[in-house]
Amino acid sequence: MPGEKAEDSRPIVLIGPMAAGKSAVGQALAALLHGEYLDSDEVFVRENGAIADYFAKHGEDSFRELEAEIVARAISGQLTVSHPEAPRIISLGGGSLGSATSREVISRCHVVYLEADLATVLPRIARDTGRPMLAGDAAERWLALFDQRRPLYESVAQLTVDVRHGSPEDFALEIARALDLPGITAKDGRA
Ligand SMILES: Nc1ncnc2c1ncn2[C@@H]1O[C@H](COP(=O)(O)OP(=O)(O)OP(=O)(O)O)[C@@H](O)[C@H]1O
Ligand SMILES: O=C(O)C1=C[C@@H](O)[C@@H](O)[C@H](O)C1
Ligand SMILES: [Mg+2]
């Protein structure tokens, strides 16, 4: 029909640094689109236990191998439980783009980069014990990792959302509008 938006079954993948809100925004977006939400960190924990414990026992390299496998399974639809045509929203672990395979795998998706800064995430990471990559001085570690990874996020992002001011629901609507998804109007979010 003229004027009707074409179906677009590509998953929406959320990337960005630790505590930017990938999980919170991903869940809000799934609710808005009546879609399925998947989180590579949650899948990891379900299959292997707490991330901090896994790092302590097996080290980061082993974690990254399993993480890359989970990303591939998530994107390919192997972990999907809902209707095959339901929108799929997938949040990736903050360090997952270190894998060239994962960068390649997500190139066929809508890739949305949640861009944050230290001031925004500081209250969220200050008392963190679950993120082994932030062990020690969490603020210093977050900044160092962000400096190192920012070029990777930027190189794969198709849409960048500034998440410094607003709620997860605000950002979900911004993403849905920017991607011009079927069923979303500019005015209130739903057709
Ligand atoms: N826009 C927001 N406003 C206020 N709080 C937020 C916002 N986005 C996320 N949060 C809160 O910040 C914390 C971290 O968010 P979240 O877990 O979604 O980040 P993440 O990017 O998935 O982090 P990780 O790298 O650990 O997976 C959570 O407590 C969440 O509720
Ligand atoms: O930035 C990282 O390296 C990480 C981010 C988290 O999402 C987890 O994937 C894990 O704690 C490692
Ligand atoms: Mg998360």
Automatic annotation (TrEMBL):
The lineage of its organism: Bacteria, Bacillati, Actinomycetota, Actinomycetes, Micrococcales. Its main location: cytoplasm. It comes from the Bacteria. Binds 1 Mg(2+) ion per subunit. Mg(2+) binds at S23. Substrate binds at D41, R64, G94, R149. SUPFAM superfamilies: P-loop containing nucleoside triphosphate hydrolases. This is Shikimate kinase. The gene is aroK. Its cofactor is Mg(2+). ATP binds at A19, A20, G21, K22, S23, A24, R131. Keywords: Amino-acid biosynthesis, Aromatic amino acid biosynthesis, ATP-binding, Cytoplasm, Kinase, Magnesium, Metal-binding, Nucleotide-binding, Transferase. Its EC number is 2.7.1.71. Transmembrane segments: none annotated. InterPro entries: P-loop_NTPase (IPR027417), Shikimate/glucono_kinase (IPR031322), Shikimate_kinase/TSH1 (IPR000623). Gene3D superfamilies: P-loop containing nucleotide triphosphate hydrolases. It is found in: Cytoplasm. Monomer. It catalyses: shikimate + ATP = 3-phosphoshikimate + ADP + H(+). Signal peptide: none annotated. Pathway: Metabolic intermediate biosynthesis; chorismate biosynthesis; chorismate from D-erythrose 4-phosphate and phosphoenolpyruvate: step 5/7. Catalyzes the specific phosphorylation of the 3-hydroxyl group of shikimic acid using ATP as a cosubstrate.
